[in-house]
Amino acid sequence: MIIGLNHVQITIPKNAEELGKHFYCDLLGLKEIKKPESLKGRGGFWLQVGNLEVHVGTEDGFDRLTTKAHLAYQVEDLSYWRNVLNENSINISESIPLPGYDRFEFRDPFGNRVEMIQAI
Predict the structure, then answer these.
(1) All domains in the chain, ordered by first residue
(2) Rounded CA gap, 37 and 26, in Å?
(3) How far apart are CA 43 and CA 17, in angstroms?
(4) In what order do the strands lie in the sheet with 52-58?
(5) How far is CA 113 from each of CA 2, 37, 41, rounded to the nearest angstrom?
């Protein structure tokens, strides 16, 4: 029986960890958490998001702009995030309406699709 979700993983290009940490930790305010010693040699970093983890791995040779795969961060103030992203010249796209939610999407600096979603 599946009882929950432990973590999700996205990827960024190899050797792009500093830019990734700047975007995800500094701009989005997510907390970096320690990776186990046994996995540190693989590159990337881990983030805490509520009671879940986002593992940011490294991978070259993949065009992230061609996929619909994405993470959706649940937020309390969608307009706040719209302003933060606009102030940092992040291009926002409106999402198809979803009953009970307001949302938008954007691409991170590596092409990963990201959604911000708020219950209404």
Answers:
(1) 1-61 (3.10.180.10), 63-120 (3.10.180.10)
(2) 24
(3) 8
(4) 7-12, 52-58, 45-49, 31-33
(5) 26, 29, 26
Question: Could you tell me if 59 and 110 are in contact, meaning their C-beta atoms sit under 8 angstroms apart?
Answer: no
pLDDT tens profile 72-85:
999 999 999 999 99
Longest CA–CA span in the chain (Å) reads: 44
CA distance 107 to 92: 8
CA angle centred on 71, ends 59 and 44, rounded to 5°: 30
- CA distance linking residue 42 with residue 69, whole number of Å: 22
Closest listed residue to residue 103, CA positions, set 75, 65, 62, 68: 75
> Which of 1-5, 24-28, 75-79 shows the lowest per-residue confidence on average (mean pLDDT)?
1-5
Please report where in the chains the tokens 């990337």 appear, as a residue: 44
Q: 51: which DSSP letter?
A: T
Rg of the chain in Å (alpha carbons): 15
Report, as an integer, the average pLDDT of 34-61: 94
Q: How many other C-beta atoms are found inside a 10 Å radius of the C-beta of residue 23?
A: 21
